[in-house]
Amino acid sequence: MKITVLSGGVGGARFTRGLLAHLRTVLPGAPDAPAGTTAEVTVVANTGDDMWFRGVRVCPDLDTLMYTLGGAVHEDQGWGRREETTRTSTDLAAYGLGGEWFTLGDLDLATHLARTELLRTGLGLADVTARLCRRWSPGARLLPMTEQEVETHVEVDGPDGSPVLLHFEEWWVRHRAALPARRFVQVGLGPSQPGPGVLDALRDADVVVVPPSNPVVSVGTILAVPGVRDALRATRAPVVGVSPVIGGAPVRGMADACLRAIGVETSAAAVARHYGRRDEGGVLDAWLLDTADAAAAEELRAEGWVARAVPTLMTDVPTTARIAADALDLVAAGRR
Ligand code: GDP
Ligand code: CA
């Protein structure tokens, strides 16, 4: 079985870790595994948050995936390396270059240095990512959505009221998404193409999962890469989404600020309708939401959705494995 996941950072990485844990219980060697069952998980990662910073290429969502699936993530924080230190960033601040709002951990910096060195040899980001993943054995294939530098910028009001563009990371990390966003702009999107393997991973999948990632700046950015939305609409695989919104609020982070900017209410039903059903021109076939939103599930079913409410708080790996199993179950009947 081939499963393709369209992921941002923390939400998508935690979900994928649970998915892999679930698959390990149904694969060869596991007590209930059907004979010959194998599974291959491909993650198409958002690279819209990437940036050049201090001379190195930083890929926040790819790294969160790599560290989470590779067992190296700072668990409480959800991103970055565990047992991280920040001596280099602290020392750099003394030079007063600006940009002190973004801290590169000492261990994390090693990843960015390695990535930058590999990129400088002429390798594309897909090959570079595969090379970095050799160390971490994430158990899934991590593919950048594109190899071109597509960066999400946020348009906010400048001091004199005229529009100013900030890199997404500056808006999110420095300003904690508190500056009202007028809109998101993907700089470099026009001439970009899906990264190597991305369209194949959508076409050849048996199931595609949209995990509980930010619908605007994670999944929305992946879908905006020319060709990706069409490939998702065309795949024979069923597409199931898991709501990142529970009871009218994002579980962590400030996704509500992103949804507001695109005029979508922060509710599990509104996010489902924003993605839309494939039989109505959208990208999903089914939607898994939280038991707190059972009424919304009912509402969506009345509109013709395949929707189910289950506990979706990813509190630990076994609980998250259950959520992944529920997502797969929801579309199992339609799977070819
Ligand atoms: P980011 O790139 O690090 O922001 O991560 P993602 O885009 O992959 O995921 C962010 C989203 O994950 C947020 O909007 C959260 O609401 C959602 N999220 C985080 N933890 C949970 C959880 O335990 N359950 C659910 N349903 N969503 C979650
Ligand atoms: Ca991100």
From TrEMBL:
Record keywords, A-Z: Magnesium, Transferase
An MF annotation (GO) of this entry: magnesium ion binding
Keyword Transferase attributed: yes
Keyword Magnesium found: yes
Pfam families for the chain: CofD
Gene3D superfamilies, alphabetized: CofD-like domain (1.10.8.240), CofD-like domains (3.40.50.10680)
UniProt-recorded name of the protein: 2-phospho-L-lactate transferase
